[in-house]
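Figure S7 source data.
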Amino acid sequence: MSHESSSAPRSTAHSRAAYVKASRVMPGGVSSPVRAFKGVGGTPLFIKEARGCTITDIDGNEYIDYVGSYGPLIVGHANDIVVAAITKALGKGATFGASTEAEIRLAEIITGAIPSVEMVRFVNSGTEAAMSAIRLARAATGRDLIIKCNGCYHGHSDGLLVNAGSGALTLGTPSSPGVPRSIAAGTVSVQYNNLDDARAAFEKYPGQIACFCVEPIAGNMGLVVPSSGYLPGLRALCDAHGALLLFDEVMTGFRVAWGGAQVLYDIRPDITCLGKIIGGGMPVGAYGGSRKLMEMISPAGPVYQAGTLSGNPVAMAAGIATLELLWEGDCYEKLESLSARLADGLTAAAERASVPLAVNRVGAMVCPFFTKEAGGTVTNFADATACDTARYAKFFHAMLDNGIFLPPSQFEAWFVSTAHDEEAIDATIAAVEKSLQHVTA
Ligand SMILES: *Cc1c(COP(=O)(O)O)cnc(C)c1O
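Tokens for the predicted pyridoxal-5'-phosphate complex:
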């Protein structure tokens, strides 16, 4: 397939018309906020179809895609084997309200891949996984407070939509109207990658912290890599204070390595949240941990949590097919080399264009930050939010014009899939070369 961008100017008339219609019947015209292009301006694209690494909008424009539906599509869009698995499962019935063998199969793959996870409970989204995992942590410790890091995202449940309170280490305040102050006050916010901050939080609330909840690789403030010692340090702090370590691997699970970040860095959290890839593009989430902890969940134990569509057979089939594809070949080697090629290409292009750019990457998660100064680094939320989002917006639109679909926000990671190839990466770098000329203008 050719990734040459056509010479005719791109029309988005159909997407624009759809957006007007959508905005009449859906808030902001979308089903999830980032899709609305608020972070970059302009009107969002409406998608007709996608295949492999190519996504096509309803005006017929084709783009090489790095959104990857924000993480699930590690084997690319409409992978034949995944589509066949979904079709087969669907033909036998979409949902039964009773157990299927597919749940056992997916649970066995997950527990086989992640040493800290002996049992899992399937839910329908990452949001649900995180909120349920926190209930479990509170039940297991008999404590109410949780710690989370600024800029880490764990879904949109009340207790996790929290800003740091005024002053260091004060209890949190709601980051959205509608979140009760009393619930936000159950969450202490700290800086990511800062062990002193974490230690101070534990010391300020002795015997009160149920869990430290963290994305082991932060992927929702752009991409921020854990500094060496940070995750082992959190493990030690949790142990010292009788708290549980909760890794939210909804994004990183099976993305950065078979298993996830905890396998890559060899750290054992107490509870792990999963989602995205394990559903192969269908709605899914899961949380897991030791048998002892997980048997506290209803009906084995007293901690209530349920779901009409949980463990849905179509989602299980998509997840199993995706994970089997990842297990078979040399997928992670391929993802590593393609992603390194992309990151190196971005860095080199930025140097040639004299545009300050900090490219963070772990495996097939990549994020170029438009830092304000040359040589700047991004290691936490403050660094990320200091970046030049106006510049990212210009870059984003220039890349669209050059046939590349990026996340419409500086604060999202780019995802490489096994459906990308060197030709697609090189076409992307060529588009980067052209687009960087516009950001300096
Ligand atoms: C995407 C994501 C979530 C939320 O998952 P949804 O399925 O969108 O509810 C939670 N945590 C992390 C780390 C995520 O990346």
